[in-house]
Amino acid sequence: MLAAEGVRKHFGGLAALDGVSLEIREGEIVALVGPNGSGKSTLLNVLSGFLEPDGGSVTYEGRPIHRLEPWDVSQLGLRRTFQLAAQPTRMSLLEVMLAGARLPEGSSAWRSVFRARRVRAEQRAAVERARGLLEELSLLPLEHHAAGMLSGGQQKLLSLGAALMGDPRMLLLDEPTAGVNPTLRRTLAERLRTIRARGTTLLIVEHDMNFVAELCDRVYVLDKGRVIAECAPSELAEDERVVEAYLGSVRPTAARRAPGATAPPPEVRT
Q: Which one of 97, 116, 154, 203 is least enclosed by Cβ atoms within 10 Å?
């Protein structure tokens, strides 16, 4: 569904991405992990059109998208959230959600006048969908509150809801659990499973290995702008390069587990 082939991106003399290749199949939840500065957010920016690569290609559903603007990529059904979910502080939650809807009929002055009935029906449908998503994200009681009043975790949920307003076929999530308390993390994991069940493919940049092990089908590991591993979450503890150099130390019991036993996810040192 989404493929990067030999993607390179330099900032001055720094190679942020050095020949990155990956493939995401329809219906998967795939994690992108690695230490700070490994190129994860840069890769998401390239995949979503916010940065143009210096080399290589990105295709979405077989179509090259690495030269498209981010709003054009979004219109194709590939949307993303950001590591810092900075919402407009004075807009209400409902208004933020409606801003994430696809370009409406009413965006044209001509249609607003000559297709007024259709515009009103579209507005009602958008409000209904926004309120439904807010309810699923446990934010509906706050729909008329200013977005700037939300906690960091609630802002992450709101940014996810705004991205879902466009009915994306694929979502790129940049550290969705950062700053989120354990209760909201469980809620977020449940929502992401529901989103996948409804047909949306997910690529998630994440540092919480327990979250990755619980949710994801496969993992790509980046370091210094290169993919150094691609495996199932349960296999991360088997790769010495990943465990020792990039994810920290595993629990002591991991080295003494019985043959054939499933390896626990590596424990990250921050």
A: 116
